[in-house]
Amino acid sequence: MNKFLSIDQGTTSSRAVLFDSNLITLDSYQKEYNLSYPHNGWVELNPKDVLSTVKDSIENILGKVGDADIKSCGITNQRETTIVWEKLSGEPIYPGIVWQDRRTADYCEELKQKGSEDAVKDKTGLLLDPYFSATKIKWILDNVPGALSRAKNGELLFGTIDSYLIYNLTKEKNHLTDITNASRTLLYNIKEEAWDQELLDLFGIPKEMLPDVYDCDADFGTLIYGNHSIKINGVIGDQQSALVGQRCFKNGQMKSTFGTGCFLMVNTAEEVLKIKEGLLTTVGYKIDGQTSYAVEGSIYSCGNIVQWLRDGMKFFDKASESEKMILSSDDNDGDILFLPAFNGLGAPYWNSSVRGGFYGITQDTRREEMVTAVFESICFQVLDIIKILEEYKISSEELRVDGGMIANNVFCQLLSDTLNKEIISPKNIESTALGACIVAMIGSGTIKDFNDVNIEKSFQSSFATNTNLLKKYDKWKRYINNSLS
User: Fold this and answer.
1) What residue spans of 227-280 are helical by DSSP H?
2) How many CA atoms within 13 Å lie on the side-chain side of 128?
3) Is 198 helix (H, G, I), strand (E, B) or coil?
4) Strands 83-86 and 337-339, how do they pair?
5) Residue 354: per-residue pLDDT
6) Mean pLDDT (the chain, rounded)
């Protein structure tokens, strides 16, 4: 039976996952690396750490099975994170600027004041925000001596993580990206499906440093590792990969991934939907020559808040222990609220300056109340997005979820009660790696019906609990708006 390798490169770790042709996980290996925070709002990574952890993950898998039966490889990656490297040596000229980084907030505000945002949003479906790659590229070109002139001379290359991996792992040294990652740069016209010269001029970025853009299921080259040789037949950004992994192939189907951040994405098929209330329009995927678009709500802080409760506040030793600390509405008679803004707020607020905090703490406040407030704030942010979608007649009685936090059953029930929706969790909650495998299988010519999801568990909402949570949501909303003003 053929096997398929998925490389899942995330914000704080890299994984290699081996699937069989029935999408059953055969083996996996994960290795973490550290981020750095040089200044307030800055988030960086060492590109060599990323490459090293990816290579270690591949080596761990291939060392057990070899490559004889591996039909194809798919890559999925954290999007927007920006690396600029030398074309000849492959050496990065600056640390990778992570998607969470907010250093270009003032520059984005300047462009907004000049009236540039409408044109940018019309072409890209995105907002003028530090989240996306373009202003990160500009910052590197402006702050690394000689970088701009070298980029104009074709000596420097830009890429999101997928491009950096393809360049360093393929025999051909290809400089490529896929359409989903390109659509997150603020430089790609999602209607014309091409790099946009007006946007390049706006940000002062030479086209010479940009990768070629391929469909998700294209031939991206040959992965070479030691004596191993495997074709890369699929590349797709992590949230779009989860959309595929959750089999959201129909108009209106939606998923939400709970990892470092939280990302809710709904398939809108051929429609490039314009939503003015802070949600993003993006490319969902392009497979078999057909482009499907999507609407996305991006939440900056999710799993990293739970990590902070564990490592920073020492409220528990393992993330799994937080499950026992989430209070039910019957046991939680306090009004502790949490503002989840370690690096500002994403959709629908898009505020870079606000920072996190608790409201309503007294000397009698318990750890359990604070933990509960954190998990409620995550659910409330998802509810923010759901309410906007419903204004545009986009609704579903179910939400498909994935990511590490979904192992927490109490959180899943809280999410169901907050949204008043059925929450469906698949047997394989790592949908990003699964989506990359599916795209690689399609790209390699493997025929398979991918529409069925193996459901592990589902959660039904309680009317009474939903009513109580909506009252608390209203208080939380006032707290957020007061903090922003």
Assistant:
1) 238-245
2) 21
3) helix
4) unpaired
5) 86
6) 90
Those residues with Cβ within 8 angstroms of residue 424's Cβ, 6 or more apart along the chain or in another chain = 398, 399, 400, 401, 453, 455, 458
For residues 235 and 214, give the distance between their C-alpha atoms in angstroms, rounded to a whole number: 9
339's tokens = 């503002």
Residues 440 and 23: beta-carbon distance below 8 Å: no
- Can you tell me which residue has the tokens 């040596």? 89
Q: Determine how many CB atoms are found less than 10 A away from the CB of residue 330.
A: 9
Asked if pLDDT for residue 449 goes beyond 70, the answer is no
With 0-12 / 13-18 / 19 or more C-beta atoms within 10 angstroms meaning exposed / middle / buried, residue 460 is: exposed
Supply the pTM of this predicted model.
0.86
Pick from 80, 73, 33: nearest CA to 166: 73
Q: Phi and psi dihedrals of 383, rounded to 5?
A: -60, -40
Residues 310 and 335 sit within 8 Å (Cβ to Cβ) = no
pLDDT value for 256: 92
Two structure tokens written together for 1: 């039976």
Cα–Cα dist 471/208, whole Å: 54
Q: Are 295 and 272 in contact (CB under 8 A)?
A: no
| Residue whose C-alpha is closest to residue 185's, from 205, 156, 166, 214 | 205
* Closest of 160, 157, 163 to residue 78, by C-alpha: 160
Task: Tell me the β-bridge partners of 96.
Answer: 45
pLDDT in tens, 176-188: 999 999 999 999 9
Cβ-contact 397, 422 below 8 angstroms: yes
Cis peptide preceding 348, ω within 30 of 0: yes
Domain boundaries, the chain: 3-237
CATH of range 3-237; options 3.30.420.40, 2.70.180.10, 3.30.460.10, 1.20.120.350? 3.30.420.40
Q: How confident is the model at residue 151 (pLDDT cuts 50, 70, 90)?
A: very high
């609220």: which residue's tokens?
337
DSSP E strands, 22-80: 25-32, 44-45, 70-77
**Phi/psi of residue 284, each to 5°?**
-75, -45
DSSP-derived secondary structure for 406-418? GG-HHHHHHHHHH
